[in-house]
Every structure is written in C-alpha cells, then in structure tokens.
From TrEMBL, chain A:
Its job: Ferredoxins are iron-sulfur proteins that transfer electrons in a wide variety of metabolic reactions.
InterPro entries reported in the protein's UniProt record: 3Fe4S_ferredoxin, Fe-S_cluster_ET
Full protein name: Ferredoxin
Organism: Actinoplanes lutulentus
Iron is among the record's keywords: yes
Keyword Transmembrane helix: no
GO function term, MF aspect, one: iron ion binding
Pfam families the UniProt entry points to: Fer4_13 (PF13370)
Gene3D superfamilies on file: 3.30.70.20
Residues annotated as transmembrane: none
Signal peptide (residue range): none
Assigned keywords, A-Z: 3Fe-4S, Electron transport, Iron, Iron-sulfur, Metal-binding, Transport
From TrEMBL, chain B:
GO terms of biological process kind: antibiotic biosynthetic process
PROSITE patterns linked to this entry: CYTOCHROME_P450
Classification via InterPro entries: Cyt_P450, Cyt_P450_B, Cyt_P450_CS, Cyt_P450_sf
UniProtKB keywords: Heme, Iron, Metal-binding, Monooxygenase, Oxidoreductase
Record-given protein name: Cytochrome P450
Length: 65, 399
C-alpha cells in the first residue's frame, strides 16, 4: 500500500489524523495533513483505508490496493 | 413543479429521531419547495452526496442569484456578508479555511480533553448535589460546549445568557429578517469589542490568534468578527443538542445504553458510539445548500446552471444502501462515513472538538450516573425543531 496525498485539496478536517495517527499528522500552522509514513505496515492498512474513505475532500488515494 | 413538498419537513412525533418520512420516499433527484416559493433540487442518497459535494460544478456562493437560502433572514443578509469559509469555493475557500483551522486540529483538541473532562465532571457534581429531578439541557447539555468554546475563543462565560439568546434569534427559522439582523449585529458588536481588546492585550485563545492575523494583514477585522460569531454560534448550540438528544436516544434504547456503559473504558467503542449517535440523530435538518454553476447530469435528470440544490444530510445517513436498518441505533456498526458534519470541503470546522466533547460525555455520563432515567414520559419531552439543527427545550431527568 502506498499513500498518495493531494495536498492542495486538503481542508484539514483532521479525520485522517484521528483515525490513523501513526500515518497522518497535521501541520501546526494550518492543520493541513502530513503523511508520516507513505508505505504503512500491514497493521495500519485498515485504519488508512478508513481515513481515505472518510476524507471529506477525497484528498487521500491508495495505490497498490 | 406544483407537487413539490415543503422543506424543511416535519419529523414524526412518534419517532422524532428519524428524518421526516417523506425524505425516504423522495426520488434520488427530487424537488422541494422552500420559504420563497422556489423549488430547488433535492438530493438524498449517500453516494450522490459524496460525488456532488466535491464537484466544482456546484458553488456555495450565496450571493449568486437563485441560491436556495435557508431562511428569509439569511437571504436578506447574504449580500452583506464578507467572504468567509461558509460562502466561498475552492481555491479561495481553501486559503480562508487554512487561516482558521489551527485551533480545531486534532492534536490541539486532544490536548483539551482533560480540561473538557474536568468541566464536565464539575457540572455532574453540581447536578448531583442539586435538586432531583433536574433539567439535563440546563445542567449539562448547554454549559459543557458553551464553557469549552468560550475558553477556546477567549469569551467570558459570564456573558453566555446574552450570546446564547442572540445566536438563537440570529439563526432561527421563526425570526423575521430585521430581528435576525439586529441579533447578528449585537453579537458582532460584542465580539468586535472583545477582539479589539485582544489585539491590545493578547491572551492564549483563538480571538487573540485571529487578532494577530488581523494585525498581520492576513484577515480583516470584519472577517475576524464574523468568523468569531460563527464559531461561537456553531460551537454551543449543536453540541448541546447532541448531548441532550444523545442521552434521550440512549435512554430509549436501554440495550445500547448498557453496551455503552460496559464498554466505556474502551476509547474505540466510545468513539464509534459517538459516530453512530451523530448518524442516528443527524441534528442539522435544514439541508446544506449549493447552486449549480454548470449543467450536471444526475440519474437522467439535468440540473441546470443557476439551479439551487439542497442536500438533506439525514437522507444520506438513513440511506439503506449505506447503513442497513438505518432506523436502528447500533453503537457497534461502522458509522464513521456519516454525513452529520456534512461532506466535501465545507465539512464542519469544529468536528474534532465536537467528537472529543461527545466522547468525554457519552463515555462518562452514564457510568457516573448509572441510574439516570427520564423524569417525565417520553411523549412529554419537548423538542426544539425550529432551528437549523433540532434539539431539546429541556430534558427532565432523575437518578
């Protein structure tokens, strides 16, 4: 699994950081998401899939799925 | 379209948590009649809302002619409202939203969790020390989110009677435009005074942060005041409704309440329970509204450029294609993909804060007061249906 993040779309709703905190964080100045681990380990995959599914801006894509 | 049903529709007194029954009966692309007699398109399905709420062919620019305004008062005010996150499209929206996101980031609201827990515990102590029965709306529902948002914004809690009354008048469907404008103006003057003071003497709060952005030329004074009012209004009424209605819904579903009490040490269970209650209650019941700026084909219907479109959030949250048996409250079902906070780039700014508040309260209220029960028959509980979101006028409880 590879996490592809379309930063200009991000509205900083923060759901990714809440659901998969090992993979996503938010930038201090404006809350925009940061990908901490673009190739997350297997045990994070379910959380990352959920984060991608609920992202309100559809800014998270998963390659190699 | 002479047969278009009037919107917002009324919930049924028999099952007040469910959306109005007409909503499920609407075709995927229907039409409703609103207060000004116009008949915007009405989209209720979860999948359609997901697709369209990120579609650049729809705009939230409420100044465009034909925009399906929420109320007469809002229509009258729209031309005078500065550019805000609530009336701009990307990319301008993206820029504006990034100036107000920071205080509502997950790590910042997570850091507030112990403070929210203390606020809540203090209010429960007070309620238990006072008269029994008591009104849960007055003792817990309203004060928790109001105390939290006033601390975050830097607004004196002592003024809560004033700004709660003003915000209710500013957003209710029942208020006439002059009165709503007056209430909005009063709130603006109040916040303007506070903002000016914070610019002089900054503190560790959001108004001071906005004051610094005003000083730096990143936002105007008027924008900061309008944004501050919006945060203050949105920050107490809706969470208060979720607390009170959530408690009522749980008392009506004792098996689910028992599950929640038994699993209250499991943050994952509590977090999902909060999502399911957000879905089940979908308190925003006047739809989120857009205007088409290009033609859009949807299920064989053409939504033309210039047409208004209303998305009913409860429609999506009770769409059986997305949530099986939607009328059933099931705290263990996967519910996170609900649209209770909207969907798309305008999804609720304060959602992470609301989640932490609800997790704290749903996680501890029923454990702290295991004998909590309604003090009146369910049929006598008074609902407040006239706002943008529904709630309870009062919730008499005993223990």
């Amino acid at each position: 699994m590879r996490v592809e993040f379309d930063e200009p779309k991000c509205v900083a709703a923060g759901q990714c950081a809440m659901i998969a905190p090992a993979v996503f964080d938010q930038r201090d100045e404006d809350g925009v998401a940061i990908v901490l681990d673009a190739t997350p380990p297997e045990e994070e995959h379910d959380a990352v899939r959920e984060a991608a599914a609920v992202c309100p801006a559809a800014a998270i894509r998963l390659a190699g799925e | 379209m002479p047969d278009a049903p009037y919107y917002p529709m009324h919930r049924e007194a028999r099952c007040p948590f469910a959306p109005a029954p007409e909503i499920a009966a609407m075709p995927p692309v229907g039409q409703v009649r609103i207060w000004d007699g116009s008949t915007p398109w009405f989209v209720t399905r979860h999948a359609d809302q997901r697709a369209l709420l990120n579609d650049p062919r729809l705009s939230i620019d409420e100044k465009l002619p034909g925009y399906p305004h929420m109320t007469r008062a809002r229509a009258a005010m729209a031309p005078h409202i500065p550019s805000l996150i609530t009336n701009t499209d990307p990319p301008e929206h993206t820029r504006l939203r990034r100036t107000v996101n920071a205080p509502f980031m997950v790590k910042r609201v997570e850091a507030l969790r112990p403070r929210i827990q203390r606020i809540f515990d203090g209010l429960v102590d007070d309620m238990l020390a006072g008269d029994n029965p008591a009104d849960l709306v007055e003792k817990i529902g309203l004060p928790v989110p109001t105390l939290v948002i006033t601390q975050i914004l830097g607004v004196p809690y002592a003024d809560h009677a004033f700004f709660q009354a003003a915000s209710r008048r500013a957003i209710s469907h029942d208020t006439d435009p002059d009165d709503a404008a007056q209430a909005g103006k009063g709130l603006g003057e109040y916040l303007g005074g506070l903002l000016a003071a914070k610019i002089e003497q900054p503190a560790d709060d959001v108004l001071s942060e906005m004051g610094a952005r005003v000083t730096a030329g990143e936002m105007t004074f008027a924008e900061a005041v309008t944004m501050g009012s919006a945060i203050l209004i949105a920050g107490h009424e809706t969470s208060a409704s979720m607390i009170s209605l959530g408690t009522l819904a749980l008392l009506r579903n004792p098996d689910e309440l028992r599950k929640l009490r038994e699993n209250s040490d499991d943050p994952k269970f509590v977090a999902n329970a909060a999502e399911e209650l957000l879905r089940y209650l979908t308190i925003v019941h006047s739809g989120i509204r857009r205007i088409a700026v290009e033609d859009i084909e949807l299920h064989g219907t053409t939504i033309k450029a210039g047409d208004g479109v209303i998305f009913d959030l409860a429609g999506a949250n009770y769409d059986p294609a997305e949530f099986a048996e939607p009328d059933r409250l099931d705290l263990s079902r996967p519910a996170r993909q609900h649209h209770a906070f909207g969907y798309g780039s305008h999804q609720c700014l304060g959602q992470s804060l609301a989640r932490v508040e609800l997790q704290v309260i749903y996680g501890t209220l029923y454990r702290r007061i295991p004998t909590l029960a309604l003090a009146v028959p369910f049929e006598e509980v008074e609902f407040a249906m006239e706002g943008v979101a529904y709630g309870l006028t009062s919730l008499p409880v005993t223990w």
